[in-house]
Amino acid sequence: MSRTVTLTLAGALISLNVAAILYGVFSRYIAGGAPIWTDELSRFLIIATVMLAAGAVWSEGGHMRVGLLEKLLPVPFARLLNVYQWLLTLLIAAGGAWVSYRYALSVSMFTTSGLGISRTVPLLSLPVGFLLLAWHALLYGPAPLKTVEDFL
Fold first, then answer.
1. Cα 56 from Cα 62, distance rounded (Å)
2. Distance CA 20, CA 69 (A)
3. Which of 4, 28, 55, 97 could form an S-S bond across to 133 if both were Cys, CB 3.0 to 4.6 Å?
4. Which helix H or strand E contains 129, and what residues bound it?
5. Contacts of 131 (CB under 8 A, 6+ apart)
6. Count of beta carbons in the 10 Å neighbourhood of residue 58
7. In the chain, how many domains are there?
8. Is the dihedral of CA 36, 39, 44, 48 positive or negative?
9. CA dist., res. 120 & res. 122, Å (int)
10. How many whole angstroms separate alpha carbon 146 and alpha carbon 78?
């Protein structure tokens, strides 16, 4: 359920990003000048899209990784490696959420140059994305991640 919601939100953000880019291109080459906010909005939207989708893609096994070691190890060691990878993912995601949240709050007094909003607003996509990654990792559990061979 949460995987579908996050991928749908990421799809909506990427659609909004395409619209902003097309508006900027239209404004620049047909109307004679693009507003500065289109480039900045596009940059923030692509970062938010990636952060929202990261957890769902991780649980699908869609991130690039080398799973050869898991196949070569005896089953008990492979299970131990899976637990280690799972715990490491949870730790990095939780740590990333904490650090990026603190950073987003620390720059609240500054505004973006194009949109004129507090820098905290676009930066909050980072802790949200890291929390979603931790959430999806918790839901997935310490099971082996899917590989390309699983889909063939």
1. 9
2. 43
3. 55
4. helix 125-140
5. 93, 97
6. 19
7. 1
8. positive
9. 6
10. 14
pLDDT tens readout for residues 103-125: 999 999 999 988 999 999 999 99
Amino acid at position 76, single letter? P
What does the block give as tokens for 69? 């070691």
pTM value is 0.87
CB 4 within 8 A of CB 15: no
Q: What's the domain range around 38?
A: 1-150
pLDDT tens-digit series, residues 68-111:
777 888 989 989 989 999 999 999 999 999 999 999 999 999 99
Q: How many residues does the chain have?
A: 152
End-to-end CA distance of the chain: 24
Helix/strand/coil for 118: strand
The residue whose two tokens read 């699908």 is: 60
